[in-house]
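Supplementary Methods. Inverse-folding protocol.

Structures were first reduced to a discrete structure-token string of length 227. This string, shown here, constituted the complete conditioning input.
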């Protein structure tokens, strides 16, 4: 697996990458989450089903490396997918080497089951241990990745009355984190004292809880000769 996640010269193609078990959540929760992100609008990557039917994982790993933030959706059968686990390893490598933000969602699953590999997760890893195609060190890496990911701050869907409320909270949190990243990037690029201006402009473009389908035009005025 190509684990290169160096920030040197890397441009972000996506703002959010969604890592999930398709059979569990694609047609339900993840589709609704993806649509909510896009409507914000946030540039999110959700793979097409045809990608997972092939043997080439490289396109998905590239999308991870080109994303600023990753959402990991843990569901009942998440660990049975080697693709999900390989993606998770890549996501955490990008977190360590490129400060990628990682947000876990425990969808209809107990976080302790994921962390301690109990119930469905225990069954999945018992199968991985028996699978001659999975190398022992790789499986060990998957276990470690699950432990690391579950220690991060995220959401437990069982604590919400419905998916709508949960998705709204996730999208708002992601949106705010991306604004903070944009502000920090502006300062790093020498745009001093632009933080408040960036916040104001983005709040006008994408008001929290507001309609985002209307056309908005922003005019930026500055000293002559700066363009």
């Amino acid at each position: 697996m190509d684990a290169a996640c160096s920030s040197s010269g890397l441009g972000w193609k996506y703002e959010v990458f969604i890592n999930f078990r398709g059979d569990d959540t694609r047609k339900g929760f993840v589709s609704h989450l993806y649509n909510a992100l896009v409507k914000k609008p946030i540039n999110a990557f959700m793979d097409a089903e045809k990608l997972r039917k092939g043997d080439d994982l490289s396109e998905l790993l590239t999308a991870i490396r080109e994303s600023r933030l990753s959402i990991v959706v843990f569901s009942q059968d998440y660990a049975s997918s080697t693709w999900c686990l390989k993606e998770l390893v890549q996501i955490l490598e990008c977190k360590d080497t490129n400060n990628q933000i990682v947000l876990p969602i425990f969808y209809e699953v107990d976080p302790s089951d994921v962390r301690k590999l109990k119930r469905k997760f225990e069954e999945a890893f018992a199968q991985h241990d028996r699978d001659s195609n999975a190398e022992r060190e790789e499986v060990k890496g998957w276990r470690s990745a699950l432990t690391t990911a579950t220690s991060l701050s995220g959401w437990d869907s069982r604590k919400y009355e419905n998916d709508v409320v949960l998705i709204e909270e996730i999208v708002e949190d992601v949106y705010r984190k991306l604004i903070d990243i944009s502000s920090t990037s502006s300062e790093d690029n020498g745009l001093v004292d632009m933080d408040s201006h960036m916040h104001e402009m983005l709040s006008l473009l994408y008001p929290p809880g507001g309609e985002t389908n209307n056309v908005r035009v922003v005019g930026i005025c500055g000293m002559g000769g700066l363009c």
